[in-house]
Design goal:
The protein is α+β, with helices and mostly antiparallel strands. It has one domain. About 25% of the residues lie in helices and about 35% in strands. The protein has a 4-stranded antiparallel beta sheet, covered by helices on one side. The longest helix is centred in the first third of the chain and has 14 residues. The radius of gyration is 14 Å and the shape is globular.
Length: about 90
């Protein structure tokens, strides 16, 4: 039971890479809706290296614009991948 509670709690948490990517996309997209990005952890149960590429969606009017945020060093480059698409993020 405690493991289920921990999993639910962790599912709502945002890691620092995710947060940085979300802010980078927000600066470029100037969103009116919520921005969500894939996780900064990779591998099974986060055992891999930190992610450098994040897929983010910006919610707008029931659809989403999808962006790719790529971290090189301490900076992000952000580009639009698709406009008015579904709001599903890939599993990370």
């Amino acid at each position: 039971m405690a493991l289920v509670a921990l999993a639910l709690l962790a599912a709502g948490c945002e890691d620092s890479g995710q947060s940085s990517a979300r802010h980078a996309v927000g600066r470029v997209a100037r969103p009116t809706g919520r921005v969500a990005c894939t996780s900064g952890t990779t591998g099974h149960f986060g055992s891999g290296p930190a992610a450098t590429v994040f897929v983010c969606v910006v919610h707008a009017g029931g659809r989403c614009d999808r962006y790719v945020a790529r971290r090189r060093g301490g900076r992000f480059t952000v580009r639009i991948q698709a406009r008015r698409t579904d709001c599903t993020l890939p599993v990370s």
